[in-house]
């Protein structure tokens, strides 16, 4: 039985990723920041499907907590699975900030940097000793790293950095047969960014009109893609950016 760690697994894309991986018979360790009740509900859903699951609190912007978090992961692997390693790491946790380039504050910039880029960089570094040789890592980027919408310059820049980092990780971790890829979602109907894509009918219709498949994305579109990427059939995919956006701006 494989074990996956999904950061930000209590809601949105992280929840869908966790549930899709559980459907593929993977056990799940999911993290949450402050949505403990929602995280426990996801754990129940996974357990009801016959898999083991556990929710751990983690703020990915608090980098000093990563050493203790890694020790906690070590302990729960031994206690709950009688193992000293896990198989998959999905760096999904994130926040959305919409502000024009001229109006973006240093505080907003630092929040995005600490959460998306620095968090992914150093959390992965701390957990690497516990990822098994031959395991896999999936980082979550955004379609906004390829195409541009006003108001997302800082957010998209962090995601662009994640994409470069993914290639370097794939290169350097290849000696351990760890494959590293990046999934770049398009606009998705979640509560991310105050739920604007989900709740604003005009915005939803506008994005749909730009997309070859004629709609915006759903969380299960991303959960299914990550599960497929982590299947044994996709083991030879490495160092790649895979955009899951229905063909927007082709």
Could you characterize what this model shows?
The protein has 250 residues and is α/β, with parallel strands linked by helices. The protein has one domain (3-244): Rossmann fold (3-Layer(aba) Sandwich), CATH 3.40.50.720. The protein has eight helices and seven strands; from the N terminus they run βαβαβαβαβαβαααβ. It has helices spanning 12-23, 36-48, 66-81, 106-127, 153-173, 196-199, 201-209, 219-229, and strands at 3-6, 27-32, 53-57, 86-91, 131-140, 179-185, 241-244. A seven-stranded parallel beta sheet has the order 3-2-1-4-5-6-7, with helices on both faces. The longest helix has 22 residues, at 106-127. The chain is globular, with a radius of gyration of 17 Å.
